[in-house]
Amino acid sequence: MRISVLQGDITQRRVDAVVNAANSSLLGGGGVDGALHRAAGPELLEACRELRAARLPHGLQTGAAVATPAFRLPARWVIHTVGPNRHAGQTNPALLVSCFSESLRLAETLDVRELAFPAVGAGAYGWSAGAVAAAAQEALTGFRAAHPAAGLELVEFVLRTAEVEAVFRDVLGV
Questions:
Q1: Is the predicted pLDDT of residue 123 greater than 90, yes or no?
Q2: pLDDT value of residue 78
Q3: What number is the average pLDDT over the span 7-34?
Q4: Does the chain have fewer CB atoms within 10 Å around its N or its C terminus?
Q5: What residues does the Macro domain cover (predicted)?
Q6: Is 33 an active-site residue?
Q7: Domain coordinates of the chain in residue numbers?
């Protein structure tokens, strides 16, 4: 599995799946979540409403992941995960690791070869770029150990600023 770190717009990535830093409602929001919903079109919101009605009446739990089609995005899938909100007292880094681990696990079940992550939990949820990158590194290490023959060929981190990109490059060693 190749790891890539770049500055860019995750809504433009031509990969099998993109990860959405969602909120528990799955009904859109700000940041990456809002950008992905806008770019995917109203079909994404409808798919999320259907998920809520059928399987997730109380929303998606922190650290969990669920997939929908990507609709108008250049990807096939959107994997939604809910990061812990430090501002709301969710300070357990294991929940942050779980966001990455569960997204990787779900990507494997969807036969995803190329997966793009944002900095889940950074920004509005208050985690530092270093903590997020460390959580991603821990999840990647665990995933590689548990799935040595995984079909994932590329995991990329698509980050909005040069500063966050530099932190991820340093922590991930790429």
A1: no
A2: 98
A3: 96
A4: C
A5: 1-174
A6: yes
A7: 2-172
